[in-house]
Amino acid sequence: MTPVQDAARVPSPDVYRAAALPDAVRVYEVGPRDGLQAEPHIVPTETKIEFCRSLVAAGVTNLELTSFVSPRWVPQLADAEDVMTQVNLPESVRRIVLAPNARGLDRALRSGASEIAVFVSATETFAQKNLGTSVAASLAMAETVVAGSTSAGVPTRGYVSMCFGDPWEGSVDPVRVADVAERLIQMGVGSLSLGDTIGVATPAHIHAVLDAVVERGIAVERIALHLHDTYGQALTNVYAGLTAGVAEFDSSAGGLGRCPYARGATGNLATEDLVWMLDGLGIETGIDLHALSDVSVWLAEQMGRPNTSAVVRALSAARADAIQNNSTLSPTH
Amino acid sequence: MTPVQDAARVPSPDVYRAAALPDAVRVYEVGPRDGLQAEPHIVPTETKIEFCRSLVAAGVTNLELTSFVSPRWVPQLADAEDVMTQVNLPESVRRIVLAPNARGLDRALRSGASEIAVFVSATETFAQKNLGTSVAASLAMAETVVAGSTSAGVPTRGYVSMCFGDPWEGSVDPVRVADVAERLIQMGVGSLSLGDTIGVATPAHIHAVLDAVVERGIAVERIALHLHDTYGQALTNVYAGLTAGVAEFDSSAGGLGRCPYARGATGNLATEDLVWMLDGLGIETGIDLHALSDVSVWLAEQMGRPNTSAVVRALSAARADAIQNNSTLSPTH
Questions:
Q1: Are strands A191-196 and B115-121 parallel, antiparallel or unpaired?
Q2: A239 and B170: CB-CB below 8 Å?
Q3: Is B259 annotated in the active site?
């Protein structure tokens, strides 16, 4: 790794490859959507646009920009049309937006998105509490959106929440996740994102759910993982997913966004922490970690809140140390 | 997992076992020593004693209580003799203390410790900056301590710092770590703790260093890992160690202690976050996670500082939610 004391550079991990892991991973960046939607303050449209452009400049090629859920529910993203109209990203970037229903789909298709994401729950209680509906009804709604998107030639992604545990129901049978996953694939989604919404999973649990889904004939290449860090398990679960062949992971620049089910607890996996590990494993992401970290620092300043990414904090401290060129360290051990 | 909404109980992970992992792990608790020594405030002796006793009551059986380094260097642990005299822990608990030299060893042996830890550096620059000496000289000093401890019938543990990266030297050759490890084993230490002092390692790097050490004829059963979370990698690296057969991991209750080499960055792996994963993997630790979390909450209150463990924060929030019995959740996705 690059020595910290070299003022011109900041640390990167040494590269040690592991056999049987993917050569490349798609980092699916949800900061502008999942991150900002969970933040208490509403970020100005100009800042969102700058954020999206900077993420792409840092190498992000899978970007979830916004959501066409009703502004009544998610006021933070009420400017979805404006963001999409003005952001002007290259066609080569996968530009995903959420659409919950036919009206949302209509807005999404007119916005120029290159991919539409739908969302369903693996558990009845979450479907009820969060979506005001049942699993079956939310699947039916998703089917409408997927059919409409497919007709328009726009691919879709199917999010499944509560795949590893539910705050009300407790344990979630992996078979239930597989049932929902199978329905989504049958209706035509291009890929799935299986979510550990409350962050309770551990490595073999990740494998058990993946096995149940793959057993339905769904290729692991079509599966992404959306892992929350509420219990500090997210990155370990990513590694478990990697060892099972998963090559797409959702994360949020700077760790933006909080889990609404555990007040005060951390939520999204920070993209920088994910990329540090992938860089160290020699897995291609296309992302410049230091450039990405700078984007997160900038956004945290815009939002007047601290950054929750360990890597961003460490790189910022290392840069400050290198600039100071002061290495007075107290003895340890 | 236990539903959050059950007010009488708080969450635990579902158990999913993985093949080829250890059945049991020794959680080596360094909070009272490594944690407290890095804290800016000096904790009263009575609080330290209560902390140690509470940790043992929660099931900790490998406890590093204090250090007999000169109080000039580590004023936070100047009360080492008092803590050891008054703490009164069962003989069944492995009670480890640090001793840097012959004088420290003398104090340590008289204190009633059941194990003595010595510490050396894998890199010259860290030995110089932190210990004011060379690798060779620190090995010679360690040999004196180990010989004295062994004569007294007290086993020893050899800590090696900077095994995965050094702030000044950058990359560290795994061969160098193996050289130091081999010397320690030859001089008679019972076990080794290989440290990622600056937290830069990733899973295959963990394997590379373990392979280099094991190649010297050192059984993996004699190897522990001391992983820092400065870059958010600690728990993932624990899992990597588990898959390579490591069965002892150092951690700090509530994530006490900070890495002094990256100001503002997180340091020790939180014991609760480690135990959540081990519980989820069905690996025995002997530790009651919820009791341990309560100890960390109590200590954080004593110290007037926030807790850095994701699990502790999540369990505290879940308990508050359960008590409120209020589940108004804003829609997501």
A1: unpaired
A2: no
A3: yes
What is the DSSP code (8-state) at residue A166? B
Strands (E), chain A: 26-29, 62-67, 94-98, 115-121, 156-161, 191-196, 223-227, 248-251
Say if residues B87 and B56 touch (Cβ distance below 8 Å): no
Place of tokens 């952001």: A87
Do residues B218 and B183 touch, judged by C-beta distance below 8 A?
no
C-alpha distance from A170 to closest chain B C-alpha (Å): 4
Place of tokens 């250090």: B67
The H-assigned helical ranges of chain A are 36-37, 45-57, 80-87, 102-110, 124-131, 135-151, 174-187, 203-214, 234-243, 271-280, 289-303, 310-324
**Contact status, residue A250 vs residue A234, Cβ threshold 8 Å:** no
- Reduce the DSSP state of residue B19 to 3 states and report it: coil
Give the pLDDT of chain A (333 residues) as one tens digit per residue: 655 555 345 699 999 999 999 999 999 999 999 999 888 888 999 999 999 999 999 999 999 999 999 999 899 999 999 999 999 999 999 999 999 999 999 999 999 999 999 999 999 999 998 878 999 999 999 999 999 999 999 999 999 999 999 999 999 999 999 999 999 999 999 999 999 999 999 999 999 999 999 999 999 999 999 999 999 999 999 999 999 999 999 999 999 986 444 444 568 999 999 999 999 999 999 999 999 999 999 999 998 877 789 999 999 888 887 777 654 443 444
Q: Sort strands A115-121 and B94-98 into parallel, antiparallel or unpaired.
A: unpaired
ipTM of the prediction:
0.93
A76: closest CA of chain B, how far (Å): 12
Domain locations in chain A as residue ranges: 26-317
Query: Chain A contacts of B314, Cβ < 8 Å?
Result: 199, 230-231, 262, 265
From the list A14, A230, A314, the residue facing B230 with the nearest CB is A314
Task: Collect all residues of chain B within an 8 Å Cβ-Cβ radius of residue A74.
Answer: 331
Q: Are residues A1 and B236, on separate chains, in Cβ contact within 8 Å?
A: no
| C-beta atoms of A329 and B208 within 8 A | no
Cβ burial, residue A260 (10 Å; 0-12/13-18/19+): middle
**CATH, domain B26-317, list 3.30.70.580, 3.20.20.70, 3.30.420.10, 3.10.350.10:** 3.20.20.70
